[in-house]
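Appendix B. One record, verbatim.
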Amino acid sequence: MPREIRINAFDMNCVGHIQQGLWTHPRDQSSRYLDIHYWTDYAKRLEAGLFDGIFFADVVGVYDVLGGSPDAAVRGAVQVPVNDPTLLIPAMAAVTQHLGFGVTANLTYEAPFLFARRMSTLDHLTGGRIGWNIVTGYLDSAAHAAGLTGQTAHDDRYDLADEYMELVYQLWEGSWEDGAVLRDRPRGVYADPARVHRVHHAGKQYKLDAMHLSEPSPQRTPVLYQAGSSPRGSRFAATHAECVFLNGQSQPGVKKLVDSIRSQAVQQGRAASDIKVFLGATIVTGRTDADAHEKFAEYQRYASSEAALVHAAASMGIDFAKYDIDQPIETGNSQAIVSNVDAMTRAAGPQWTRRKLLEQMVMGSRQAPWVGSAKSVAQKLIAWSEQADVDGFNLARTVVPECFDDFIALVVPQLQERGAYKTGYAQGTLRRKFSGQDRLPASHPGARYRRTAALG
């Protein structure tokens, strides 16, 4: 019996997300992203399909690496304009009961004290269904927008992130004791001040002397996602992450990375099962293989190779406009997404070119779609789950909402027939659905900041 596969929709509060150009398809509705009813309908569709959640990507800069200008990104709606994803979540939560919400927030530009309150607020309003995708950023344009001269070096950003996590753990886990909130109407005492504590932190990057402003939320610490797969990113994930988001390469390559992250987690005293791994995937499906390939050919007509290059250039930190079509690309010492550069080198060899990159962009991104009948897609998802030891998949949108409607109507029943997909939701918080408990496990480093009355 295969294990239960977890499924998230992967999207962004913008027009063009991963598969660039598909917003121009006549059936695509992503340009309705400014309409709150678009998002509430979206949430209801996903919950009807028993999706575990929606995973929101985000950036706080513009893609201006290709040609040294943002013009192509603006022209092609390459993740710009982009709005704040956190503001969508309460509305989507109000029309659902079980759907989880993983939201990306860049800690480099978020004041930890205020961010901790925002996550606690969202955890309260969703009834414990919030997760945080921890990112440190990779765009110089974001640094410039924040008044900085440029990005901090890749590995140094993770050093800052380690301290950031220590601080927010103290706020979420240690400021308010369990039982501090009394709600005692007769005595007029809402909370016991003796059980609410100031956090004193004086580190290399951050200083704080304050109590957390929010009372304890259902999960206290949101479910922690992380998408780093560079050596330093993997080490950070093994320490902090409960869910790791990987982008695909070969099955053996993914399995090696999954084994490495889980092995590092065990070395730090965590259980291998503490980490759930989600693989990014793009799916085009139909009732038959012929139906799926006909749809894929239709989608390809709307894909934009220029917009795909804009996204790739920013994520790799390389201006491809400086190179002729067959001129070897000099990767250098990228400070962007190091794992993306490494993945391209593995796929195309050390002397890869712009032509080789474009050959991979069959539908507006470097993420090659899985195209086939619902039966073949279900078999592929199960094979990846078993052979690469991944727990679930983040499904990037193509033409919305039909891409998710197709998956729900066609693929979900195939997975259910094979015992690989739930037939109903478990009760409880997002973390409880994933791991059987509402709070961080005792083996997680954040748990050491919990305070009890006995500790004072």
